[in-house]
Amino acid sequence: DFYRFNWPVMMVFSIALFYFLSSGGNLSRLEGGVFLVAIMVYLFLLIRRARKTHVEVEGIDESLKITSGFKMIVWLLIGGVALWGGSELLVNGAVDLAGMLGVSERVISVTIIAIGTSVPELAASVIAALKQEKALSLGNLIGSNIFNIASVLGLTALIQPIYVQSEKILTSDIFWMLGFAFILIPLAFLPRKFIFARYKGLILFVSYVIFIGMAFIE
User: What is the pLDDT of residue 173?
Assistant: First the structure.
């Protein structure tokens, strides 16, 4: 499913994002709605494909069965409020940091904010890899890219259209994004199929460091 279904969907969503932003300089409510409909179709197809394969699930925490609905709701509310508060601090802090460093908000957003919001994904992927759950590690990242584009940007655009504030987004950043997404296929098949060796990880990481450096220099 990595190269037959999930990766192609990620590339289609990425290219669609580039098209929408470059054609009008913004992501409109209509385009946001298109993304939300597309993610719903993707989820439907994903679930339908998954039901055709029988998977043995192990390690379920039995204590979760006796957790009350009220307790779940309370924890969800606490988590939601904490997430909202953290988001407010993150955005305000990023704006202040951009002013202190004398760089644009775009630089802070594609570097510090992007890294900060991706830390949970990094932790989940590393733990999954260490536990030999390679499908979880790769699936987590591809799924995150799909959801960030289709649901996060889609829902945000429905609430408030998103306008491109810096031309570097369309002339540089988005091409880096497309490049990182596309190169997964060659890395997955060459020189040995379905193996992401350490040197391939190093190639990706060094490339990202170069991107970060260029973001601050440009």
Answer: 92
